[in-house]
Amino acid sequence: MAAAEHRQANAAAAERARPTLVDRVHEQVLRLIIRGEFPRECKLPTEAELCERFGVSRTVVRAALIRLRADGHLRSQQGSGWVVMRGPEPGALRYPPIRSVADLERSYEFRIAVEGQAAWLAATRHTAEDLRAIEDALAEADSDHARFAPDLAPELNFRFHRAVARATGNPFFTATLEAIPNLIGAGPVELRYPGLDDPEARRRLIVEEHREIHRAIASRDAPGAKAAIERHIASARQFVFERQAIG
Question: Which of 47, 66, 163, 196 suits a disulfide with 133, CB 3.0-4.6 Å?
Answer without folding.
Answer: 163
